[in-house]
Specification:
The complex is a heterotetramer of chains A (about 350), B (about 300), C (about 650) and D (about 150). Chain B is an alpha/beta fold and about 300 residues long. Chain B folds into two domains: about 150 residues, no CATH class; about 110 residues, no CATH class. In chain B, about 35% of the residues lie in helices and about 10% in strands. In chain B, α9 crosses α11. The relative contact order of chain B is 0.12. Chain C folds into five domains: about 120 residues, Rossmann fold (3-Layer(aba) Sandwich), CATH 3.40.50; about 170 residues, FAD/NAD(P)-binding domain (3-Layer(bba) Sandwich); about 60 residues, no CATH class; about 160 residues, FAD/NAD(P)-binding domain, CATH 3.50.50; about 70 residues, Alpha-Beta Plaits, CATH 3.30.70. Helix content of chain C is about 30%, strand content about 25%. Chain C is elongated, with a radius of gyration of 32 Å. Chain D has one domain: Rossmann fold (3-Layer(aba) Sandwich), CATH 3.40.50. Helices cover about 45% and strands about 15% of the residues of chain D. Chain D contains five helices and four strands, in the order αβαβαβαβα. The chains are: A alpha+beta (about 350), B alpha/beta (about 300), C alpha/beta (about 650), D alpha/beta (about 150). At the A-B interface, α7, β11, β12 and α9 of A face β2, α2, α8 and α10 of B.
């Protein structure tokens, strides 16, 4: 579908969201909680905080829940009864909208989609992704941790969004990227005013401070470089970077239950945990935190891009903001590019 | 401030040059002026990076549990009073030996809460520091080989702010109310275990949550799994936690972990008269008993 | 895959009357892993056991669950039956459906459902049982006895007579302990040294006893059957093998006025080179270097060396460390008296004629400083009136100890009696709280002191003693008459209570045995294991354990000896295999396990790589000492230690198998 | 949703609550046996899990029992001073005291957790404790919906 352009006043945007809620949409938006902002289900437009640059966590959990039941089982004597978890994927028959997310978060969706459809098609992910409509708002002022421009995106990118809003004064310009976006506003078209493409505010020229390809070229050749061991002595392996990351998608499969019944679940996991690669023998191929952080860099900036032609990073900077030891990935990637030139 | 940094750097240079230590763990400037980050210095010529100020929030003792750090053998470490208590517990529990460690103590009158600092806060006052700073009894590290005096004035207390007042508030609630409170808090948990990793005293090489025969703690992120994790974390730190608050600072979803830790510390003190981290020669509270221990709850 | 057999016992109608045993059996057969489920009238009967054995054999069972009576009744019976079929006995578990179901509940349906639950729990437990081998520890058949008092001597002689080698270690230059200091003994008034000396000589001459006097045990490691010990022989300055005990050395020693005799409790003096008493065993002097002029004045005085015929005095002798390995240890370290100076109101130390009970023993003794004549220490006059005060320090939680010292009532009665016999026309007064005279002949003995020997017993406390015109004025209360009494006496004897020997706590720490808050060694069980310490292979005797008199001390020495002889009657010591084990891969050596272990069973173990470089230290369980209580498991944060037979996964399986 | 309601209805006003008791082998288990040999009667809601010593009874067992659906958990061992293993009960007592405070702080109704010392001779005490605890559990408001209750 060709992109369509609209305009909507701030007041009508509120009406738009409140109407969707009335119409039984589940709206996930940035909300204030405990002095910070997180994505959460809002009960009305005013619950949302659209002024914040980025919620503390991404909305990854709406694509890949923290815990997901793959199937449940129960015994009666020696007979086993199994119930497929796909039946109860929440949001399956319900329209869910991520509203007010940022372009970086939106860009994460299509990146994740690739890995969950690489060979094996993951019904759980696909079912959720299919039922999710993403309405993003472009950033006006990224902060020092942001590097989406370096990651081939921009604070105004519509990549991954179904509908992208840009604030201009007291109104919003909107670009409908695809049918899903169009479908969403179809019932509320009275609130939107269609405009021509050239009336839509053009993207600014966002400056980059490094070339990501250069970092990759370093990673290509320097697996054993001392940089990794020295630089990440300060990493405590907490995994916050991976858990707050919109694109990190590793999970662990576990069985939980007792002698009568149980379920197989998959939980978020993190390559930053020592146990992640620990072998039964006691050997650990990624034995140091340096090895493990290198793995994260390798996966994001080399391995994934070689396989899927996309970097596994949208430059949101959450891993840096949230790191208790202030490891700043933007600095790290910049280091890599400098090491490549050295 | 420069004075402190110079002293720090001189001590570090001397220690490294004389080969008394092969690594200095200290602070250096971070992502922005209100953030500090850990730094690892191995060469005398790098000591210029060392610095300390009211944003030095991390408890660097956490690094002593890392195998990669232990390999350095003799280590110099910059500690505030609260952080040093962690060293004492690590020594009590045979994780660190005194002769392998040079303690560079820094007097401290409080550090600014990181969430405020990230928003630009630079003032040191009762409104900007952590609760632990308001209750601090160890502005000067208990054990130290070197001591650097404090650059900041003592915080004046208006009396309006009562640290950890929430503990008393919770204590006065009914169990239903408490349950509602904690269910909401634990629901946020994403089980990243950052609280564990950030804790200088969570040094097990295989945490109990990673033990699966039997599965002590549910792996799921649901109500019971999250509650179990938060419960066992607090239980395993009861009588050991020295209140550095690193778990709560690390928590990406802002669970008030220090409420639980603080409650446990109070209970331990009330019941057994013990405060952890104050005496490196003391026997840990769960390593001993008294015949006259509290028995009223047992029929 | 498990192949479990479930056997549901009717116990006649004891179980079957309240529990639907067929239903239990049917439910058992539905559990995955159960290959056989039967019910039988009496499983413990011979036919019952045979059917159990048959099923084990026929179905090649990997585990057995008996839903029957309490495991305390027949667990062993069924385990033995399993062994006969080659099944490890720890693969037998009991669901207690009699004592804890059929006998305590009435509702048949509900009792049955509980019985099914208990049976199911045990099936899940037995699925997770591991084969456990009992631990066999080789025994080094040699015994160390610490303390050469009467109980240590008794233990040493009994063990030696049983054919086992004994090392008897005594701190003082002579054995004999406290008993040899006593005059006559209650209630028979036989003379202490008359009955003690032959035993001491027997010890010295016994081919199976190696005597170390003037020696101390300085280090103990290892465990039952295999204790490595170090004995420090303090430099005696006398070559023992050459000494004849002639006495020339001490007779010429110039230091005969300055050193108080420990043996006579400071009532006389001894020389620098000395034997504590004439009947000492061995009769070899020791040179007290702390007071000897040779050592204090740079080698000038050599009088003893000159007087010594065989020239066996050697000022250059050094402390010597002897290393030995023993299989068992007796701790008989004895007692001291409570410090009398705690009782200022009695004037001990202030008035020379206020003495302790032990001092009075020396004043009565024919071998004592007064050669058995009762004389006042102050002026040597014969006292006509003596006031005895009981419970000095004992039963006094405020200033002394809360416990009763047990021997004071009797020795005071003895003192009063002997005083009456030795000084005719004399008068004794005894202040007491209660009279405790409970052994054979004791009550009669005390009665005799009162009725035949005329001692006046006053129930009450003394409040104050002071001196007035050569007399001691004792002010006290007679609570029976309600009167204040005032007695002018020539002497006062304090019946001082007993406390553990100074330094016995250090010995306990070295041995790894526990002691109570007073320092008395605690027995493994106060009733059923009164001889054993908390550590396997270490036994207790005498006053080190608590106040007791001579017969009891002798009994305890013999008891320890019989335990050791019993232990050594086999070549190996067998320990139940249900002990703790450590996962060395995950242990971080915080040693909380060691802190809570009451049996000293946990120590550190170095893990080294192939080149011998230390990788890490881990906790290590000594199978000879571990009893499998599991306190360590509870203390372990990472659940790196577990106890066989009650593993964590078994407990969890039991919980998870329940229907709720 | 309907199923859940039905389930709730089934568990509400619980007249047949399950109680899991963790007991030591030497004192309390023998005490319970004595109740049996003396033919005393008591509530049949309890399921006993035998361990060597109260020193072995990890407070985390309480949580597992709750998770399994037990309404009440009892821990019982030898009286202070009587521990067959010298000091297991003393060490555990410290842990229980703190763990209990922790449970209470996190909103668990402490009526659901009981501790006792029952000796081998106290069959009657065992009976009394089980009966009393069972009655107490039955009387608990079902609305109490603490973190370890499904």
């Amino acid at each position: 579908m060709e992109e369509k352009y609209f305009e909507i006043s701030a007041e009508d945007l509120k009406k738009f969201v409140d109407s969707m809620i009335k119409d039984n949409f589940e709206i996930i938006a940035p909300m204030d909680r405990d002095g910070d902002t997180f994505y959460g289900k809002i009960g009305k437009f005013d619950d949302a905080n659209l002024d914040i640059l980025l919620p503390k966590m991404s909305y990854k959990e709406y694509l890949l829940p923290k815990t997901e039941t793959l199937f449940e089982y129960s015994f009666s004597g020696v007979d086993i009864d199994i119930k497929d978890g796909i039946e109860s994927v929440e949001g399956k028959n319900r329209k869910r909208v991520i509203f007010g997310g940022r372009p970086c978060d939106a860009a994460a969706g299509p990146i994740m989609e690739k890995v969950f459809n690489w060979g094996y098609k993951d019904d759980f992910f696909n079912e959720r992704f299919k039922n999710l409509t993403i309405v993003s708002i472009a950033c006006e002022k990224p902060d020092d941790y942001c590097f989406c421009a370096e990651m081939q995106l921009s604070p105004e990118s519509s990549h991954g969004s179904d509908l992208l809003l840009k604030k201009t004064g007291d109104k919003y310009s909107a670009v409908v990227v695809n049918d899903k976006g169009l479908e969403l506003i179809a019932s509320y078209l009275n609130l939107f005013k269609e405009i021509a493409k050239d009336e839509f505010p053009p993207d600014k020229d966002w400056k980059k401070i490094f070339e990501i390809e250069k970092a990759k070229s370093f990673l290509d050749k320097n697996f054993k470089h001392n940089y990794f061991q020295d630089r990440f002595l300060s990493c405590i392996g907490c995994g916050i970077c991976t858990y707050t990351c919109p694109t990190c998608h590793c999970f662990d499969i576990q069985d939980e239950g007792d002698m009568k019944k149980g379920k197989r679940i998959r939980n978020w996991d993190s390559c930053q945990f020592a146990i992640f690669t620990l072998h039964t023998s006691g050997h650990n191929p990624r034995n140091t935190q340096g090895d493990r952080y290198r793995q994260r860099l390798m996966h994001k900036f080399k391995i994934y891009s070689e396989k899927f032609d996309k970097y596994l990073c949208v430059g949101c900077g959450r891993c840096s903001r949230n790191c208790p030891q202030d490891i700043n990935i933007k600095e790290v990637v910049k280091d890599l590019t400098e090491l490549a030139s050295a | 401030m420069a004075n402190i940094d110079e002293k720090l750097q001189k001590i570090a240079r001397d220690l490294l040059e004389s080969k008394e230590v092969s690594l200095i763990i200290g602070y250096t400037g971070g992502s922005h002026p209100q953030r500090m980050r850990p730094v690892f210095i191995t060469k005398p010529e790098d000591v210029g990076r060392l610095s300390f100020n009211r944003h030095s929030v991390q408890d660097l003792a956490v690094f002593l549990k890392k195998q990669e750090v232990k390999k350095f053998g003799r280590i110099g470490i910059v500690v505030k009073g609260c952080d040093e208590k962690a060293l004492n517990v690590l020594m009590q529990e045979y994780q660190v030996s005194r002769e392998n460690i040079k303690i560079i103590g820094v007097e401290c009158n409080g550090v600014i809460r990181q969430d405020l600092a990230d928003k630009g806060e630079t003032d040191l006052s009762e409104n900007t520091v952590y609760d632990k700073c308001l209750m601090c009894g160890e502005h000067t590290p208990i054990l130290h080989d070197y001591l650097i005096e404090c650059a900041d004035p003592q915080i004046s207390m208006s009396g309006d702010i009562k640290p950890f007042a929430k503990i008393e508030e919770l204590d006065s609630m009914s169990s239903e109310e408490k349950d509602v409170f904690w269910e909401k808090e634990f629901d946020k948990c994403i089980k990243c275990y950052a609280c564990r990793q950030a804790c200088p005293l969570c040094y097990c090489s295989r945490c109990i949550v990673e033990k699966n025969v039997p599965q002590w703690i549910d792996t799921n992120f649901g109500k019971i799994g999250n509650a179990q994790w938060n419960l066992i974390r607090a239980y395993h730190l009861a009588g050991r936690c020295i209140g550095c608050g690193e778990c709560e600072r690390a928590c990406p979803v802002n669970i008030p972990l220090m409420l639980i830790n603080g409650k446990m510390a109070r209970s331990i003190h009330d019941l057994f008269g013990y405060k952890s981290g104050l005496d490196v020669d003391a026997k840990p509270v769960f390593g001993v008993f008294s015949e006259s221990d509290f028995n009223d709850f047992i029929k | 895959m498990s192949r479990i057999g479930v056997f549901v016992c009717w116990c006649g109608s004891n179980i079957a009357g309240t529990v639907d045993v067929e239903k239990v059996r049917d439910e058992a057969s539905k559990i995955p892993g159960v290959v056989s489920a039967v019910d039988y009238k009496y499983m413990c009967s011979d036919p019952g056991q045979n059917s159990l054995r048959n099923v084990i054999k026929e179905k090649n069972l990997t585990g057995v669950v008996l839903a029957a009576c309490s495991p305390h009744m027949h667990e062993n019976t069924f385990r033995k039956a399993a062994i006969k079929e080659g099944l490890n006995p720890y693969f037998v578990e009991i669901a207690n459906i009699r004592e804890q179901v059929s006998w305590v509940h009435d509702d048949k349906e509900r009792a049955t459902s509980k019985a099914v639950d208990l049976m199911t729990m045990m099936v899940e437990k037995v699925k997770r049982d591991r084969s456990i081998d009992d631990v066999k520890v080789p025994l080094h058949k040699k015994t160390l006895v610490i303390g050469g008092g009467i109980s240590g001597i008794q233990a040493a002689l009994d063990i030696a007579n049983g054919g086992v080698e004994v090392l008897l270690v005594e701190k003082e230059p002579s054995i004999g302990g406290r008993m040899i200091q006593l005059d006559e003994t209650f209630p028979t008034l036989d003379c202490s040294s008359c009955i003690m000396t032959p035993k001491m000589v027997e010890v010295n001459q016994h081919p199976n006893i190696k005597l170390y006097t003037y020696s101390e045990v300085t280090d103990v490691s290892g465990y039952i059957g295999n204790f490595k010990i170090k004995i420090k022989k303090k430099a005696r300055s006398v070559v023992e093998k050459d000494c004849t005990g002639c006495g020339n050395c001490w007779n010429v020693c110039p230091m005969h006025k300055n050193v108080k005799s420990e043996f006579n409790v400071n009532l006389s003096e001894r020389t620098a080179i000395y034997v504590p008493f004439p009947q000492a065993v061995p009769l070899i002097p020791a040179l007290d270097r702390a007071v000897c002029l040779h050592f204090k004045k740079g080698g000038k005085c050599v009088k003893c060396y000159e007087a010594c015929g065989p020239k066996c005095i050697d000022f250059n002798l050094q402390d010597e460390i002897v290393e030995e390995t023993v299989g068992a240890i007796v701790a008989a370290t004895g007692y001291d008296l409570i410090e009398n100076s705690l009782y200022g109101e009695y004037g001990y130390g202030k008035y020379k004629d206020v003495v302790s009970g032990l001092q009075f023993e020396r004043l009565l003794s024919a071998s004592g400083p007064t050669e058995g004549l009762v004389k006042r220490p102050s002026d040597g006059a014969t006292p006509k009136t003596i006031v005895f005060i009981q419970c000095v320090g004992s039963r006094d939680p405020e200033k002394g100890v809360p416990y009763c010292s047990k021997v004071c009532c009797m020795y005071t009665a003895k003192h009063a009696k002997l005083f009456a016999h030795k000084v005719h026309g004399s008068q004794s007064y005894v202040f007491y709280i209660d009279i405790r005279a409970t052994s054979k002949g004791y009550e009669e003995f005390v009665r005799g002191t009162m009725e035949q020997d005329g001692a006046i017993y006053l129930r009450g406390r003394v409040s104050r003693i002071y001196e007035d015109e050569g007399k001691l004025i004792i002010k006290g209360a007679d609570t029976l008459s309600g009167n204040q009494v005032e007695i002018a006496a020539d002497m006062v004897v304090l019946a001082t209570g007993v406390i553990p020997k100074k330094g016995s706590d250090k010995v306990a720490q070295m041995l790894g045995i526990s002691y109570d808050k007073y320092g008395f060694y605690t027995e493994s069980h106060p009733k059923l294991r009164p001889t054993e310490s908390s550590t396997a292979g270490i036994f207790l005797a005498g006053m080190a354990q608590g106040p007791r008199d001579i017969p009891e001390s002798v009994v305890s020495g013999s008891a320890a000896a019989s335990k050791i002889l019993g232990l050594f009657s086999k070549d190996e010591y067998e320990v139940e295999g249900t002990i703790a084990s450590v996962n060395e891969a995950t242990c971080v050596a915080c040693f909380y396990c060691r802190r809570v272990c009451a049996y000293n069973a946990i120590s550190g173990k170095d893990i080294k790589d192939r080149s011998g470089k230390l990788i890490k230290v881990v906790a290590n369980v000594n199978p000879g000492l571990c009893v499998g209580c599991g306190a360590c498991v509870n203390a372990c944060f990472s659940k790196t230690i577990d106890v066989k037979g009650f593993m964590d996964d078994q407990i969890y399986a039991e919980i998870r198998s329940l229907s709720v | 949703m309907e199923d859940k309601k039905e389930e709730l209805a089934k568990t509400s006003g619980d007249n047949d609550p399950r109680i899991i008791a963790f007991v030591c082998n030497w004192c309390t288990y023998s005490g319970a046996d004595l109740a049996g040999t003396s033919r005393m009667k008591y509530a049949d809601n309890v399921r006993v899990i035998k361990l060597p010593c109260s020193g072995r009874i990890d407070p985390m067992f309480i949580v597992e029992a709750f998770k399994k659906g037990a309404k009440g958990v009892l821990i019982s061992g030898c009286h202070p001073g009587d521990c067959h293993y010298i000091s297991g009960n003393y060490h555990s007592r410290r842990k229980y005291a703190i763990f209990r405070n922790l449970l209470g702080f996190l909103g668990v109704d402490l009526n659901r957790v009981e501790f006792s010392w029952v000796s081998a001779s106290e069959g009657n005490k065992w009976v009394h404790i089980i009966n009393e605890f069972t009655d107490k559990i039955k009387s608990l408001k079902n609305g109490s919906n603490d973190i370890f209750k499904k």
